[in-house]
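W.,

You were right to be curious about this one. When I first looked at the sequence I had no strong expectations either way, so I just let the prediction run and decided to look at it fresh. Below is the sequence, 506 residues in total, followed by the output.
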Amino acid sequence: MTLVGNRTVRSVPPPRLWTGMVLWLCTARTGRNLVASLIRTAKWSETDHPLPPRCHEAVAPPRGLTTALVGFCGGLTGDEGRLGFVGMKKFAVVLSLISLVLNVSASTQPSLKVKKLGVSFPQRDPTQPVYEFVSYAGNRGSDMFRIRFEELKDDIFSNFELGISSDHGRSWSDVERWKAAPPGPDGRLRRLFLYGSFLDPKNGRLVLMGNEGMLRNDHPLDGQTHYYPIYRVSKDGGRNWLFEERVIQSGKAYTKDHPFQGVRVGSNSLWVSNSLTSRADGAVIVPVQISHTGPDGKLFRPPGAYTYLDAAVLIGKWRDDDRLTWQLSRRLNLPPEKSLRGIFEPTVMEMPDGRMLMVCRTNSGRKWFSISRNGGLSWAKPDVWRYTDGTLFFSPSSISRLVRHSTGTCFWIGNISPAHPHGNAPRYPLVIGQVDPKSLQLIRKSVTTIDSRGPNDPAGLQLSNFHVHEDRQTGNLIVRVTRWDGKPSGKGPVSGSVHAFAVELQ
């Protein structure tokens, strides 16, 4: 019985589930602390700058709101922990407040703080930039895998070094080296392993995937017709590899010479074009790009275009023999009048609701995106990628990456320009921003500069070829980027060491 004014009203307990939740949220100290914590963690950052600042200042809401809500919750129940008629009304208000807090919390972004860690991999040859990709080699523990290499000349890479670490990358041991292959009568065999390794979150297998091809003239354009993807699988963190083999689409119609639908080695090619990811069901997702064959059977390039490419993904499903069965998605295309070089170097990530987001490089001065609702098998018509407030941003023709943090937050890393870029330039600053899980657009206020051109840097500085992983000890995102001066490699002195940055979520 409960006394309300001069009336005695029989208390009606809510359903058992609601009772438990109310008692925990409103009477328990942990519940009240949770409500307070939810409010305190709602943070905002503000900027109207055309370029993002180095980091944003987080602002907490007034303490009075926290105190009022906590006090309100503490007065809901009587001595018996039951809700009366008045309590039920209060409870409804509290639920609304909690819902508001949750919505505010869900819509806010973590404040990002960037710290420069220094040179991670110093340049060894004054004519050749270097690159370094690092990732964990097991689902738990401190084992890591590393791949390093040099750029001998434009888009021709060699001298790969594979290394392992058992102490979170503090010390390393080299386990394998790939030197440049000697030239032969049919050209030179080249490898292109630009995107590091992929650790399968389901089974802990380490996958190393890249491209290989006989380049007749040892020229990057030879890869447009002769590259094909290959992959390796390891079950011990890269110390030993079970096999190395070509990737060929599933089906009797596909062979080494005709590995995928619409692809024939020697006429056009398909190759890995960004970092691997996975779906919730365990399928491996490989972003790829595909060149075109014209009516004459030769490589197609629109007038004035260096290349012309489509975007797609390979979907790999594990077999009992530790190999993958491969399926090619439908291709994503942009006509030359919208992007002279097409749409390429896609980066892909599965979102919490099961949709897949693809963000692609173009030479239109923008990044373009597409969404898949069937696990990457097909993709919607591409469109210009925007901020969540509807405004557009400029981005040069450069690679970008989507990365999922262990908190579940999806980030995008790439270049944003202050004005319309000229093709590939400028490739600075390098920024990171949060992707909104509902609209799948970039949250403007979250965008934070990782690195940019300084007063002593050359005008042609490029900050585009980078790799990122999450440090298990700190939760920081570690970004490694080659600070290249933009000069042609192999034709005189260039700058090109790898620099590391830590992005801390606050």
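Here's what jumped out at me. The two ends are 48 Å apart (CA to CA). And, maybe more interesting for your project: The chain is about 10% helix and 35% strand.

Coffee later to discuss?

I.
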